[in-house]
Amino acid sequence: MSSRTLYDKLWDEHVVRADGDGTALLWIDRHLVYEMTSPQAFEGLREKGRGVRRPDLTLAVVDHIVSTGDRAEGLGDDLAAMMIEAMQANAAEFGIAFYDAFDRRQGIVHVIGPEQGFVLPGLTVVCGDSHTSTHGALGALAFGIGTSEVEHVLATQTLPQRKMRNMRVTVAGRLPLGVGAKDVALNVIATIGAAGGTGHVIEYAGEAVEALSVEGRMTLCNMSIEAGAKAGMVAPDDKVIDYVRDRRMAPKGADWAAAEEAWRALRSDAGARFDRDVKLEAGEIAPTVTWGTSPEDAVPVTGAVPEPDSHPTEAKRAAARRSLDYMGLAPGTPMREIPVERVFIGSCTNARLEDLRAVARLVKGRRVADRVRAMVVPGSGLVRAAAEAEGIAETLVEAGFEWRRPGCSMCIGLNEDVLAPGERCASTSNRNFEGRQGRGGRTHLMSPAMAAAAALTGRITDVRELG
Amino acid sequence: MEKFTALTGIAAPLPQPNIDTDTIIPQRWCKSIRRTGFGPHLFHDLRYGEDGSERPDFVLNRDPWRGAAILVAGANFGCGSSREAAVWALREFGIRCIAAPSFSDIFAANCVANGMLPVALDAPAVERLTALAGDPATAEMTVDLPAQEIRAAAERIAFGMDPRAKHRLINGLDEIAATLTHDAEIAAYERWLDAERRWRRPAPG
Ligand code: SF4
Q1: What atom of ligand 1 comes closest to residue A109's alpha carbon?
Q2: CB-ligand 1 contact for A437 (6 Å cutoff)
Q3: A201-222 pLDDT, tens per residue?
Q4: What is the per-residue DSSP string for A375-404?
Q5: In this predicted complex, what is the ipTM?
């Protein structure tokens, strides 16, 4: 067989039926479901008298709309309560495993999937959420879908798909101190643009990617969608295999041995052809922050808000002027002079244990600046418990952070965690769109360590200065 | 699903690039378990001021675009969240076709699933259509899917189209029903999985 990329291999393995025109019916190994994008899909099944073909390959949770405060108090939001109840009722009716808001295993859908061993290398994974690309960190083909497609997968456990093009993003060399996966992700997006990955699946490679932990790779793959890519992935290695081993739903015994053998073959062949090859030098990447309202609007923290006229096209110049107006920023302002009132550490991008460890290391023995309200929202109940067991939670609370319960929280602003109009936030989430964290709210994306540094000083700060 | 063949209607220009689905339908209007009720909140924060009144500077608040059936949009339209409510909101407002230099993949798939046509054109063609759409005298256009052509004033612009999406739109196909005709092949794949790929099952944990 001719040389194939990792994506080609994953694709071929899952073709149920090839249609000869570049499309195929793909088998879906795992389907993650949550309260926001599934109710209409279940309703569609009921209307047509259809069932869920493989409830055993489906896992449901509530994350987007749950309170991150005391859950026993209820939400005080009838619409949110209705969506949570619908998720519970649909899971029960169709026989799908469901983690409710009081379950220890509950958390952000993209955190719990790998955590439970539900997601594995070599699988196809879908969810009605664009950040499903996160799971590509394990060497899975994972992508977000709409609600009609959710219904399709529930009914058939397959999805008709067109094969995407292959893109490889190589990050050569070693990352400097103070620079991590989030900085790499923001630099990839700034390099290829918010639509640069459209129609492609990205494979991340190179020394700097290999050196990332599995959690760091999740951060990187998570942001693939912000570059427009269908999916992002990294070839599984020993780190991934060690990560997966002994997880609750991971294969055991003879199945494990067969899995490991299959996973070790999951890498792009030496002569495999990529439609596009992009290279970044790790040594040139600095701690990075966004200034505008698209994730591609990223600059080194040592830089300044760009002049709108510096952009190459008129459309981008007009968009930049509009962004600056929304963000309340003047061109030329050094990023490090921008004050923040809010800090949000959380989301499927950066709310795993390693992220919280990085924050705790930095803030230990220090205090959140007076005018700043800073919150940490762990990605899952298990992350929360582990952080408490390690003393991270205590460190954070002593430093003046709010320590909340797991969920999407201020990444999407569907519960009580929202920005007020004009409030400026250092955020570890993935989207700085207008209104994303609350109408009129201003979001600067950055890494957990950078957000923690901003919390301590009350302005965007180069984490390397705090040591 | 409603069929899409040819459509003649008012086109509204929205040239800003990277219009994301949060802008199309802000998250706080997505708390629903139905596919309807989103239309009044389409482009909410662009369309209405803080006090809920219409913003006169927003194109869909002005005539003739208030009755638009087509959007001529900027690059990377529909990026961001996969929420299908973005398409439901556009449909409910009356939009049935969007022409833009590019779309997010998920958004384009959601369009087709709802009988809405995403037309990708090169940037100069979109610029010409944007100019025509901006003038009430030339804002009416025809989108002809079988012929794969947009006709506006003296312009005749051909567009490319995924044949499968075209077939689905023209015939208003229920894709799940179409997939279920391949049930025997799906069942055969499942048997192969059980025999040869046992590790791909979730372990009972
Ligand atoms: S944390 Fe944010 S981006 Fe991630 S799944 Fe939740 S809402 Fe989506």
Answers
A1: 5
A2: no
A3: 999 999 999 999 999 999 999 9
A4: EE--SBHHHHHHHHHTTHHHHHHHHT-EE-
A5: 0.96
